[in-house]
Amino acid sequence: MENLNIILFDGDTWRRLLPLTFTRPIADIRIGILTIRQKWEHLFQAKTASLTVEYLREKYPFAKGIHSEHLFINGSLLPTPALFHQIKYLQANQAIVDGDTVLALRTSGKFPSILQKTSGELRLLVNQLNQVKPVEDYKKINYLWDIFEQNDYWLRSDYQMLTHGRKSQTISSTNTIIGAENIFVEEGASIEGACLNASVAPIYVGKNATIMEGSVVRGGLAMCKNSVLKMGTKIYGATTLGPYTKVGGELNNVVIFGYTNKAHDGFLGNAVIGEWCNLGANTNNSNLKNNYGKVKVWNYFEENFINSDRQFCGFFMGDHSKCGINTMLNTGTVIGVSANIFGADFPPKYIPSFSWGSAKEMETYDLKKSLRTAELVMARRKQKLTDIDERILRTIFEKTMFHRERYANNLVM
C-alpha cells in the first residue's frame, strides 16, 4: 500500500452526526476503544488523510500529489474483516456503492480535482467508475445513537485486535476479579480494591489509567490512557472512557471521547459526550421515557426532532460544553459545542452551540469568555488551544447563530 493515499471522507452523514462533528471529521469519532480512523490505520498499517468540510481542513488536511493512487473510504464506515478485505483489494477506478451511498472508491492518476470541492460531489466521480456491491451486513454509523448502540460490538472487536498475542500486566490481589481471561491491563495502570467482572464482556484498562478503591465494573469497559474511575464508581457495559477522562457515579453504555470530567455522583446512560466537557456534581440524565415510548432527538440535517425508534436514549454533548451541579437532562437531549447549562428543572431537549443559561432563560455565551474558558480547561491538561482550534470555534459560533436566534424566539423547543 506504499503508493496509496488513503482518504477518509465525510459525505452527507457529517451533518447527521452534529454536534459531535462540528469539531472533527466523522473518522475521529471514538467507538469501542479506538476512533474510526485508528481502526483503519491499524489494519492498513498506514496513516490516513481526511476530506471534510472546509473550515476543518486546516486541522485535518488531505495529502496531495504524493501517491500514484487514492483510496477513498466513507468516514462513517467501520472495518469489519470482510469489508476491510473487500476495500483493501479494490482495483483502480472501482467503487463500492450501496444505493445512493458511496462506501469506497479507488482512483488512479493525478489527484482528483474533486477534492477541491465538497465531499458530497464524490458521487459524481463514482458514476464514471466500475461499481460493485458491498459485502452483506457491513457496519456504519448514520445517527448519534448508533455510537452507543454499536459500542459493545466495537469494544469487543478492538479488544481482540489490540491484545492479540500480548500479555496483560498483573492485576493486584487487592481486587475481586471475575473472568480474568477477559481483562487486559496496559503498562502503568493502577487498580486497587475494585471489583471487576469480565465474564460477560471484556475490560480494557489503558496505559497509566487508574481504577480507585470501591469501584465496581461489569464489562464491557474500555479505559483509554490516563483515564480515571473515582472511588466507588459503578460501570455497566458497554462504556468507553477516552484518554484523560475522569468519571464517578454510575455509567451505563456511555461513550466519552476524551479529556472530559464527570468526577462526582450522578447517573449517565446511553449517552455520547465529546472532549473538554465538564459535568457538575449530581448531573443526571434520563434514558427512558415515563411512558416507555420511543425517544425523539434533534437532527441538524432535518432541522427538526426525529424519531430515533429507540426506547433507551440518553443525551449527546458537543466539545467544550459544561453542566452545573444538579443538572437534569431529559431523554434525547442534544447539547451543542461550548454550551454552559445550569439551574434547576430540565433544560430544553435541544440546546444550540454557545448557549448560556437554564431552563428558564438562555442567551448567547460570549465568544471571548468561552474561548478563555477553553484555554483554561485545556491548560490544566497541559494542552493548548491553538490558533487553528480558535478559528474552528469562531466559525462554529458564526454558523450556529441562527439556531440561537430561533431558540430565543421559542421556535425551537
Q: What's the helix and strand layout?
A:
Elements: E1 4-9, H1 13-16, H2 36-44, E2 49-51, E3 69-74, E4 77-78, H3 81-88, E5 94-98, E6 101-108, H4 122-126, E7 130-132, E8 139-140, H5 145-149, H6 151-163, E9 176-178, E10 183-185, E11 190-191, E12 195-197, E13 203-205, E14 210-211, E15 216-218, E16 221-223, E17 228-229, E18 234-236, E19 239-241, E20 246-247, E21 250-258, E22 261-262, E23 267-275, E24 278-279, E25 284-285, E26 296-299, E27 304-307, E28 315-317, E29 322-323, E30 328-329, E31 333-335, E32 340-341, E33 350-351, E34 355-357, E35 362-364, H7 367-380, H8 387-399, H9 401-408
Parallel strand pairs: 1-2, 1-3, 5-7, 9-12, 10-13, 11-14, 12-15, 13-16, 14-17, 15-18, 16-19, 17-20, 18-21, 19-21, 20-22, 21-23, 23-28, 24-29, 25-30, 28-31, 29-32, 31-33, 32-34
Antiparallel strand pairs: 3-6, 4-8, 5-6, 26-27, 34-35
Please name the defining characteristics of this protein.
413 residues, alpha/beta, Spore Coat Polysaccharide Biosynthesis Protein SpsA, Chain A, UDP N-Acetylglucosamine Acyltransferase, domain 1, 2 domains, 6-stranded mixed beta sheet, 9 helices
Describe the structure in your own words.
The protein has 413 residues and is an alpha/beta fold. The strands form seven sheets. Strands 9, 10, 12, 13, 15, 16, 18, 19, 21, 23, 28, 31 and 33 form a 13-stranded parallel beta sheet that branches. The protein has a six-stranded mixed beta sheet with strand order 2-1-3-6-5-7. It has two domains: 4-142, Spore Coat Polysaccharide Biosynthesis Protein SpsA, Chain A, CATH 3.90.550; 146-408, 3 Solenoid (UDP N-Acetylglucosamine Acyltransferase, domain 1).
